[in-house]
Sequence to fold (1804 residues):
Amino acid sequence: MFVSKKLGRFLAAVCAVVLSAGSLLAQNIVVTGKVVDKNNEPIIGAYVVVAGTSTGTSTNVDGGYSINVPANGTLQFTCIGYKTQEVAVAGRKVVDVILADDALMLDNAVVVGFGTQKKANLTGAVASIDASKQLESRPIPDIGRGLQGATPGLNVRIGSTEVGSDAIIRIRGQVGSYNGSAAPLILLDNVEIPSLNLINPDDIESISVLKDAASASIYGAKAAFGVILINSKHGSKEKEAVHVTYSGNVSFQNLVNMGGIADVDGLHYTVEAAERLGTYTPVGAFWLIDRAGYNAAVAWKEKYGSTVGPNDPMVYGRDWYVDASNRKIGVRTYNPYDYYVRKNAPTQTHNISVAGSKGKTNFNISLGYLNQNGMLKVTDKDWFRRYNANVRVDTQINDFINVHGGIMYTNSTKSWAYATSSTTADVWYYLYRWGPTYPLVDKDEYGNNIRTGVYELKTANQATIKKSYVSVNAGTTITPIKNWNINVDYTYSNNNSQEHDPGIRYWAGNSWSSAVNVDGTTMANNEWYTYNGLPSSFVAKQLLVEDYTSSYDLIYQDSFTSTRQTWNVTTDYTLNIADAHHFHFLLGMNSVDYKYTGVWGQRRDLLDINNPQFDLAIGTQTSGGSASWNSTLGFFGRINYNYKERYLLEANLRYDGTSKFPTHLKWQWFPSFSAGWRVTEEPWMEGAKNVLSNLKLRASWGSIGDQSVASSLYIPTMSLLTDYWQHSGVRDYAYSTPGLVASDITWQRIETLDFGIDLSLFNSFNVTFDWFRRTTKDMIVGMEGLSYNIGATAPQGNFGKLHTDGWELSLNYGHLFDNGFSLNVTASLADAVTTIDEYGTATSIGGWYNGKTYGEIWGYKVDRLFQNDDFKWENGALVRGTDAYGAIYQYADGKNYATQGKITSGNLISGPGDVKFVDLNGDGVIDNGKQLIDDHGDLTVIGNTTPRYEYSFRVDLGWKGIDFSMFWQGIGKRDMLGSSWLTVPGYAITTDGGSAQVFCADFWYETKDAAGNVIEANYDAFYPRAASLGRSRSFNMTDNDKYMLNMAYLRLKNVTLGYTLPQKLTRKAFIDKLRFYVSLENYLTFDHLKGIPIDVEEIAGYSYLNSSNYNSGFAGVGAPAFKSASIGVQLTF
Amino acid sequence: MAFAALTLVSCNVNDFLTRDSLTSMDDGSYWTTENNVRLFVNGAYGSYFCGYSDNWGSVYAPACYSYEMSDDRTTTGTQAAILVSLPADNWYRAELGYRGYWLQRRGAGPWNFAYIRKWNLLMNRLEMMREDGRLTDEQYSHWMGVARFFRGWEYSRFVQSFGDVPYYDHEVATNDTDDMYKDRDPRSLVMDGCLEDFNYAMDNVRKNDGTDYVNKFVVGTIASRCMLFEGTWYIYHKTDQAMQTVTDIDGHAKKYLEAAQKFAAYVMDNGSFTFNTPMHELFGHLYTTLTGTAGEVILYRTYNKSIQSSNQHCIASYAGGNGGGEGQSMAGNLSTLKAWICQDGKPYNSSTVENVESWRMQDMVVTRDARFEGTFWDEPRSSATGLYVEKFIDRTGLTYGVDGAPACPPQYASCTNENGYPCVRYSETVLNWLEAKAELAEHFGGPAVTQADLDRSINAIRTRPIDAVAQAKGVKLTAPLQLSWVNDSFDPERTSDAQKACHSYAVTGKFVSPILWEIRRERRMEFFMEQYRVLDIRRWGQMELMLGANNPDLLVGGWVELDKSQQLTKRKYNLLVKANVGVVSVKHIAGYNSKGQIILGDRLFFDGTFDANNVYIDGNADQMEGFLIPQNIADRDPLNVDVRNYLEPICSDVIRQYADKGYSITQNPGW
Fold:
């Protein structure tokens, strides 16, 4: 981020005061006026000078000025961050001007590693993000969500909509190495922070993104995959003033998409899938379905669909019945959204800050509050709250010494109903897993509770994770002589997390086990006797009401603390020779010491479920703990040189050590270089400057060490196993078998080569383009070529290499029309592709191999669905046969299609309505060969999971205090093979029952009457014939191009309409600024999902409580995506 | 601050950067005491002594929930496929904490060398510890014995699945490509190695190393199991294409059978094991160890989730839990029922026990061997076949939540069960011993089986006491088997068409001998649904019994009286409803042949007329008494019972890995 405009104004004011002191007073007319920006906000400290003279003044807090000027003279208005404007006085007494933003802002200072640099002189790939544009006025809880689409090459993925969860951030590509993390280093005031969710977006002064090695390398060890530099607000922008600012926002969240879960059509699919395998008995887990049940469900829907409300009790004989084999058959269908999802879930944020400058002291104090509600209905325990407090002070003690200090405190609470201890199968999981007849209503006709997710949610106690983060910082800047600074900075940060899980027992009708007689004599009306063949009146049944608990009749509490101590010591010296040769030298050291400890305790068997306490539980007490530590230490130096700001050079060298590798391999040197040529500064370009305002060519190369791997890769460790065996009732303890290790493991080297061009035309149209190649050398991968026979996973060593190629383009156009209407349009587009260069000699297409494009998906190509006449029939039955792989149905005479025995899965054999795959290699059989690069049968690359072609565009309009902005963000290409009930037709359909509606509404089927005549059919279906696949993509859904999910999207991330009241009015109430706005988030999405009810940004397995295997990695089976509508106010006085 | 910073820098930076793992041991410093060796070995118990497995796991657990494929299990609908196409993987590179892997289709181990490495590594470390004086000779010998015992067992599991496998008696070095990609060694070479391991273990493992730890008797029983498998395999698969890698098949068979007999004999001669515990006590006992009270238990797995929350299992969900609410989707069949011996020690077709001709469960629990009552619920019950296995739960587990009974307590629900499992027990020892002896007598000129041999084994098992509940039903001890009875006509089932269809008949050209038939029968009754059956029918060359086309009794369930099932005392149900017209069917007994074998009639479907309210008016309800035919039953595809299915194929991942590196591995025949 550029040092903000306001700060720029303040700096300008300082120089203006200095300059104006020496100005001559001429006997001319007095001109007064006001200088404002496009939003009609006064520009403080703009410099007003009589053209051609040194006479000048600067604007005051109201933007007003007064100056003596010849009546026919010209006034020049300048201010950092704005385009300079000249206005002829022409005898007027009042000259008001609106200054247009200077999109170039070449003179602005950009925050870079351990310092700032003029934008004009940057040689690395550094992007600065306008925090006020990107973060303000948006109903988003954290910076991560705000950074999405903010600059090309910065990829932000909102993989989970669970409140409180972090966005996943990557710079330039999704993967950096086989083992390590590719996460960028996120620094708040030069100190790493564990989560962007800790920061109050309102406290941010500026954000810089360091993308290439040359700009990031100064941060060393953890900066290999880029750096996000966040600087907090440090004091007042204005001398001798104190301002109080309040901003508040209230938003209401609703699902992006309510629907898409199969209802009775799901039962149709289930029955078809069961019957094709000859299963005419009811199928399902606890609530079963067969043809009779399905027909009854259709009838139920017709008869009761509009009269039986979601909360009407479940009635035996009407909503369900028990068949002759004592199996529960559900007839009533339940729409999960009616039961689970909250409408208009409110969220609010409030921030108040006091920023001031008194004498030689600057300070900033801020408080923030966020209360975000989750989308779960029934419970009031689904929310995320955060409190922030931030204090920054600095003071100039004397001419030589400046000291500063600050404290940042964040306290967040994630709350949820503790209905389950599982994060691999939580309440959302069961919402999607079970079919539509699984009861969701929580009462039966006798008023008994029913064991449902809804009842359990409603009853459960409140679980919380409380995180508190404290960061205390103190430092000094000593300036012994002019141009020489010594900076010493120490930060102690402490991240503490406490989880509290109070368990519960329930009392409800057991919907899992079989039904029991109410009393053996009461009879019930069987409304569906014409369908189910049972008597019209039968013995009344009910679910057995009992006390139950799963494995969470317990109280659990944990506490984990990590501390990080960071020292940054730097010294820098600026040297200018002959006003042409400019040098800047920097030397420094950086050390980080990290420690983590934690302990947990648990006790079972609660005595009082309303007050779960350790002292009020009587079961076994267990406890455990963990500890880890690591450290890095680095020494670095940097030289900047430029000749007349025309030729720019920078060199960095860093010597890094880490605790993660063996002693003799801990230390390595990492150099980087960059250079720039400002073509437009050449004397011979002077004439072109009216058109070509700026042209700079940049190049950089650098290497950074990466150690984002596990700590003990070189040690054959043996861990304590949490075992299950007991020796004669005594708990067993055991240690694992040591793994294979490579003792010479060392740093991965991440090298980045970057070429960039910055171009401006007519001072208003700007283009920045970068091409880069990032290479991971000495990549830590498993030793190549080891056989499974070795009996252990291959040891890790520096055997591999990969590279990522990409490019980034951003365009900007800004114009201020004479009538005060301002327009600013920004667009960006970026792409990155990672290729594996060295991964041994493996050629298996499922794993990594040399030349593989990271994320590629292999699969078959689909031709079409088979139809009846493709096959040979005898006596009304298909004729079986076999091919090299398994059973097949023979094709009709003359149809020489490839056989699909390989696709055969158990008793599922490709027949009419099933997928006909393309025989790519023409060998007459559909197969996958040996799944090697040179023998992969009919498989081919059908897609890629990497998000590609990320784009965004933003329009800002302003006119007389009205501002309007619109921000779109999209991904041009991303493919996904889901693995869940929502993403794969037939997924465990006969055992679980849940499904997306689209699969069940348009699948191939034919229904025949008793005589064998087709009475109903859907031969033109998009989805193939029903088949229960188990929990896998098999048979028809064997990975293929037709049913792969296209996750590309374009989303209207934000629309904001705001109005700032004229200061003339607000000043009367001593208000400097008052703005109201409405803001919509996520309100419009264009996708290719064809109605599959998952979010376009979905990342399977990622959520707040479990970031790698949430809900067992099933795609889309988590908190659904929501949109927010909000109103807000910003007030400064 | 500057001073502090400089101090930090000036101190030894490498100390600052030395951060070894705080929470794990290091192979370099671990091997110091005998107790550490014990902790290392502990890590494998769950994989070898699975019992009921743990949590929702089903590995090596009783067949009613672990889907073991055998001729004892029958489901509704189409019978499950075994293996038609080459799997991508049947290998796992990891040692899985406390739950092993297995190939349910074979009942044996996967292509997972993690445990082979574990034991080879242990042997190497034990040598080191002895050289360093960290172990006494006695300690060294014992633990070396334990390591070799487990290695022998592990390789036996490999061979049972795959036949030939690459054999390693050392840790494979990461730079020895030829070694790690060597082709499969002949199974006889591998098993010779196992035999050496077992011999060493028998000589050196302690007689007592603490309760439920590996001791000589555990070794003896398991070693006899592995050796018996191998020895009998060579007899009944002698002419298989896969056996072409083995030279001197007979010599090996004899050696292994002699070893099997010797190992078992050691346990019988030196142990003090007795059959003093009723059947239900063995499996259904809750919470505590049986050791000390159950004389036949050699190694027992206890469960107690209050010690550790995961120390629990879910057998009750499949075999009697939730008040039996969850029906059994796989249970016994007519083939099972026929095999059961009657109380007078005779097969059903020659028994003279009163009421023996009745196939009603209520009667069979009284007329059959006591283990029948200990295995099955004593009335028909709604399940796939009408039979309900209650062997693995205690007496009360099945009575809850039914028709007004109290709600099911937690220990019978979900995966919160804690009953223990006798992982190694003496009945197996004696049956292994007896079978090995009989095979040696029949094929290799060994001494013949005597009445005294039967009394030490089969007849000893039959003295197992009968608990009070069974006694109250009228269950009595089964008469001892008399050698004199065992002649060609003792059980005509022995020479049935089903037996003729078996692979072993093709290999040996004859039916099983009468004495072996009785020994095998005893195993089937004793180990019903315990995971031995699939291994047994494979080694005996009788996998063909898993195809209904060969063995029609497989597709027939237990005896039901559907018209009276609403009057059952314990679990009422009514299948005779309109919806089941043309769906529910039974087979009557059409008559008996000259040998006393039942002949089944045609399949009779339920038919009837119903009034407007679906109340039965008239029909054949009163004829709905007979053997229940599981609904919509269909035989499994013959491909599934192809002779190639005796061995697991080498999976395509392994083949590809070999090919990837320019090596090749030989596939099993037919795949």
Q: What stands out?
A: The radius of gyration of chain B is 27 Å. The longest strand of chain B covers residues 585-592. Chain B touches chain A through 129 residues (CB under 8 Å).
